[in-house]
Amino acid sequence: MSGNNFELGANRLPGLSDEVTQLSRTFLTDHNHLKVIGIRIHEDATDDGHTGKEFLLRPGLALVRCEAGDAAGMYVPADHADAPDAADVEKAVILMGFVDMRKRSDPTAQENQQAQGLIHGFVDNAQIIYVDATYEDEIKGVLPMVEFMDEV
After folding, report:
1. For the whole model, what pTM was predicted?
2. Where are the domains positioned within the chain?
């Protein structure tokens, strides 16, 4: 089940929690050419740089595909326990939108989520969240059709 119902409150019940504020984050450039794929994100994925909202993954977060462990076949940030070593990264994507990792039935827990990942397009490199700087070159290497622009 997806937990991306931003029109509902934190506990997914309308009218029973604080108003949800609209969040936005831009990492794409003005060039309008892109290609995305559907991905599955492992339930233990967190965005530790999103202070106070670690459960809410931000657009522009670079995710790598796990080939082993509990998260095999799923995408996670580079600091995830099942993430491959930087030299072993085979596939990566850039998260297209906010993803709420919380479970609908229990907002104190997280569950696997579906999302879209960018694999071809133009991005502002300064807005990409690599989590671990040692992965930056490897992630760029497995995304040859993404143009990481330094000045937008």
Report:
1. 0.80
2. 34-149
Least confident of 23-37, 51-65, 137-151: 23-37
Q: Is 116 a residue whose pLDDT tops 70?
A: yes
Q: Does domain 34-149 have CATH number 2.40.300.10?
A: yes
- Looking at residue 99, the DSSP 8-state letter turns out to be E
Query: 16-35 b/e with 16+ CB inside 10 Å = b?
Result: eeeeeeeeeeebbbeeeebe
CA gap 149, 85 in Å, rounded: 25
Spacing of C-alpha 69 from chain mean position: 19
